[in-house]
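Appendix C reproduces, verbatim, an entry submitted by the partner laboratory led by Prof. M.T., so that reviewers can inspect both the input and the predicted structure.
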Amino acid sequence: MFKPPYLQPYKGKATRHICPACGSKESFTLYLNGETHEPINPKVGKCNRESKCGYHYTPKQFFIDNPSPHVETLHATSKYNAFKQIEPPKPIGTIPFSYVERSASYQSNFVRFLCEFMTTEQMTWIGEIYALGATKNKEVIFWQIDITGKVRTGKIMQYNPESGKRIKHESGAIDWVHNKLKQTKQLPEDFNLQQCFFGEHLLKLYQTKTVAIVESEKSAVIACVFFPDLIWIAAGNINGLSIDKCKVLKGRKAILFPDLNAFDKWTEKAKEIQIACNCKIKVSTLLEDSATQKDKENGFDIADYIINQEKTIDTINNFSSQLNFMIKKNPTILKLINTLDLIEA
């Protein structure tokens, strides 16, 4: 019958050794380390004089008697166990905060787009709390700073300053700070990237606020201005909402605002996260309740909703302040006015 390598006799210069129990010469078979093919220990083996000695010290019992934090015991194909050395977990890669400070700028096309419907005060505020950066090519840098204040990486994207839509370049729509630093040898090739939420550092600053989670960084930045009672953070994409990332939500309340094409997926994910991360999660139906069929086909997000609301408000400046107030509270009033071609008396 086949025996695993660690159960084979030690085939050194001699296959029999002195038994540590009875002292019989060349009657003792040693067990081998499956990785090194060397004896596990001079006392770990079996005496062949079973009727007279019966000494048998198995690898399993040896590791029970001599536990090690870096040894993992695995179930083997026989009644014995194999073992192997395991490496301690590799530290999460981080980037010096000086890169964030050096990149701080409002000179991106993304910020230029935001200026169309935000005040200077609002722009200054979001630039500071999210540490927005910019490249020489006017790309925006969305830094990922974790809850401990460590910088994981930065997402680099170019936006159309007129439409606010992402612009793809040769390598795609997204680049990363850690990749650029690896290319210039400022970070090691084995940099251990583990992404976190965009805006995650805000959880430390506002420990009692409810957390709002969206897909894109753009949505988080825009929504935080118009709904400041919530902490807005971004998962990065439809698949970025993971249990590992959500561990920072332990004991907190959170609301998910999925894009229209991600509602079902995020609703299912919310159930898993709530149990695994010990937090309370709700899924907003704001977009589902107000979206048109065209909106759903286009995969609208909360940022699109807010921008459309702002454009709607801009069209009602000719009404009285009282009617404007009513329309802001209930946009359906404006739809009624336009449909029936009503005129304010």
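The CA atoms of residues 30 and 226 lie 73 Å apart. Additional entries are available on request from the coordinating office.
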